[in-house]
């Protein structure tokens, strides 16, 4: 009997608390689920692209029942092992073919999913199919204007108007929220700063709509009564000394790289010069050979060699 693999790798395609706790990625992901937790109370919920299962477990603390669906079988096995519960069922399934019945869930939660799916319209069709007619979609995705380029897991990132226009084809009502990231400054006792705290947070650096890192929308064909309460979480530790060390290390690596590039360039120049010299010698040899072939001595030598071969053939025939 084969044992199903239940170990995830730290490939940054999904957030796994055992790898990423105390990192910014952990705070970003957990905060999304904590924001959704109150508004799915006593509901039947689908967490599509449930990843390692930590978020499904958070939702299950409030929901009546939660389905965690992910395309990765290893992630599903990991979720069952580490984040299971009596009101949780994990299923292997594709976002373009969700393994649930029509009109079977009250709420669909889909965080950082739509940008990973090639046919995202088919994905929204599937979400709409499994959602009850008066159901609620809670969706978040990166803001293409603000998010870093080059994430090879992302097939399509959305701008605000583009995403709203797309979602309005499926839902009459959309309430817009945003997830943003700042550097955080705090003053408190050693105890307060080493534990969870609800200290006063002053927003001294305001942002406009397109400066927020993620969109966070509630969508429904009914009037949306649910509200997402303001929630904030401190991310990873910021250290001037560590940042300085990283900067110095980067500058040192850059300097070393520049030296290596200069050496490579010198080697290329030397190789080019040798090739030019070889080419010139070959050209000179060809000119010399052509001159020899045109000389009277070479013609006499060739004629004599021809006579020699004829005499030799005559002798062999006898």
Structure in a nutshell:
By secondary structure, this protein is of the alpha/beta class. 41% of the residues lie in helices and 15% in strands.
Main sheet summary: 7 strands, mixed
Could you give the order of strands across the largest sheet?
Answer: 3-2-1-4-5-7-6
> How large is the radius of gyration?
35 Å
The helix/strand class is alpha/beta
Task: Give the DSSP E fraction (strand runs of 2 or more residues).
Answer: 15-25%
What is the oligomeric state here? single chain
Distance linking N and C termini: 86 Å
**Helical run tally:** 8
Describe it for me?
With 318 residues, the protein is of the alpha/beta class. Helices cover 41% and strands 15% of the residues. Strands 3-2-1-4-5-7-6 form a seven-stranded mixed sheet, sandwiched between helices. It starts with 16 loop residues before the first helix and ends with a helix.
Fold topology:
Layout: H1 17-20, H2 24-36, E1 44-48, H3 54-60, E2 65-70, H4 73-82, E3 88-92, E4 105-111, H5 120-130, E5 131-142, H6 160-168, E6 173-179, E7 214-220, H7 240-293, H8 296-317
Parallel strand pairs: 1-2, 1-4, 2-3, 4-5
Antiparallel strand pairs: 5-7, 6-7
Helix pairs in contact: 2-3
